[in-house]
Design goal:
By secondary structure, this protein is α+β, with helices and mostly antiparallel strands. The chain folds into 4 domains: 28 residues, no CATH class; 106 residues, no CATH class; 102 residues; 103 residues, no CATH class. It contains 8 helices and 23 strands. The strands form 6 sheets. It has a 5-stranded mixed sheet with strand order 10-11-9-13-12, covered by helices on one side. Helix 6 crosses helix 7. The longest helix has 18 residues. The protein is flat, with a radius of gyration of 32 Å. The relative contact order is 0.08. Bound molecules: zinc ion (ZN) (2 copies). The site of one zinc ion has 8 residues, from helix 1.
Amino acid sequence: MTKKYKRFCINCGKTGLSKEELFEGLCFDCYQEKNPLIILKKQPIIHLCKNCLAIKTKKDWINTDQLNFYEKADKLLNEDAQTYFKIAPDITAEIRLDKSSGIQDLLQHNTINFEINYNGKVHNLFEINEIQIHSAKIKLDICENCKGYKSEVSKSKIRIIAKKRNITESEIEEIIRLFKNSANIYKDPNLYILSPILSKTELIFRVSSIDFARNIANQLKSKFGAVIRESIKFVDREKSKTKKQDLNILIRLLPFFPGDVIKYNNNLYYIISIHENNVNCFDFKAKEIKKFKSKQIINGERYLLKSKLEKFIITAIYKDEIQIMDLKTYQTFEIEIKNQPHLIKINEGTEINGFREGENLYLIPFIIEGSDVKNE
Ligand SMILES: [Zn+2]
Ligand SMILES: [Zn+2]
């Protein structure tokens, strides 16, 4: 048996409402229209540095970069949500900027749209989950950091590229972290670092200290085996006898990573480790470990990614031969031990990484895999 309710809304006339479904004589829809759950009180303003995309808050400028701009901007807007909106109790609201326009485009616009998603249970009865679209004003300015950078005499540009490949996300993260940590250690009040320009093909950092730029370059050299080229430009400053010195540093990251196989001078090498500006390799032809300077081997070609290496297993060891099986095809091979003097310390069941190229089988001596070769 269903109960019949006789109550109705005095505004729209909707009938069949229970006592709980009426609010001050109105149905829920009409009540909500007269008492909105969220009301825009004040249009949000996003105060941006047109030079570096830093966002101004009441207290400070918050640095952002192209990767985290929207995340940080959303967070700041949400922190001030109560300033912009009157939000009914029991309702939670979340502001999300429209991320469809490129960040550089933002600087060409006066406003940006955002949605506010609000939800909750109203009067313990109605589940609400709605979205409204509003817009925020964009106000452009120049942040303290950029003003400071501009006032410094000498400037450095650090351009980081990777040879014959894209810069990986983890490299970008690591490099940004390196700048931040180094700036904290450096503690120079005249050091200004502009927000970097980041893309898959190059990273550009501008800093106001030549010393700091060199320090960063050296760290990248030792960490990534990067190859560095410096060029200094002397520029006469207007109305002054002192010379302005600008330093450009080009940093080239190696085209490969430890664990990759590369082709260099028509020979195949397995990259064991990269340390300072030395690259330790296993030479498949000579079957020995070789050490190259980054500067030379940066011209090598990535031949096989670490992830593309195949697994083999030693199935039997005889006097002069070992039998090995390709774990993907289950094909077995016999190889003469005297041709593989580097395969020491193997047992039956030992798994070895390697790859095949035509008739040739290349095995990576497992004892050196991933281990750091000491400088002799
Ligand atoms: Zn109604
Ligand atoms: Zn700025």
